[in-house]
Amino acid sequence: MPLELSEFPEEVQVAFFMFSLLPDHYEGMSGVYMGKYWDGIEYFFSLYGIVDPKTVFYIMKMYESIIVAHRADKAEQQRKVEERKAKSGGKSYAHKVTG
Q: Is residue 31 one of the residues assigned to a domain?
């Protein structure tokens, strides 16, 4: 059963919220997810009056590394699927032969 956000400590909840405010960063041509743009983090910390920005930032960076690794694994799986399709000659058709 997945955890609810309210089950996490307050610092983790704040880190998830702050992480969601930052824009995503994708590599130009390939569209690979590179993480977040961290330029505005100080602004958001001061805007929301974050008491312990060091801890919140640490949690955010840990979360980002998990997300980047997950998306890279997903992209690798998709690449392998497409590679298998290409090796098998493209689309596969199932024909029902009776007779």
A: yes
- pLDDT tens per residue across span 50-82: 999 999 999 999 999 999 999 989 988 988 988
Supply the range of the domain harboring residue 69.
5-87
Averaged pLDDT, 42-48: 95
| Residues pairing with 36 in the sheet | 24
- Considering the domain boundaries, does residue 94 fall inside one? no
Q: Determine contact, residues 16/26, Cβ cutoff 8 Å.
A: no
Domain count, the chain: 1
Is residue 58 in a domain?
yes
Nearest Cα to Cα of residue 48 among 22, 25, 18? 18
* Whether 11 contacts 53, CB under 8 Å: no
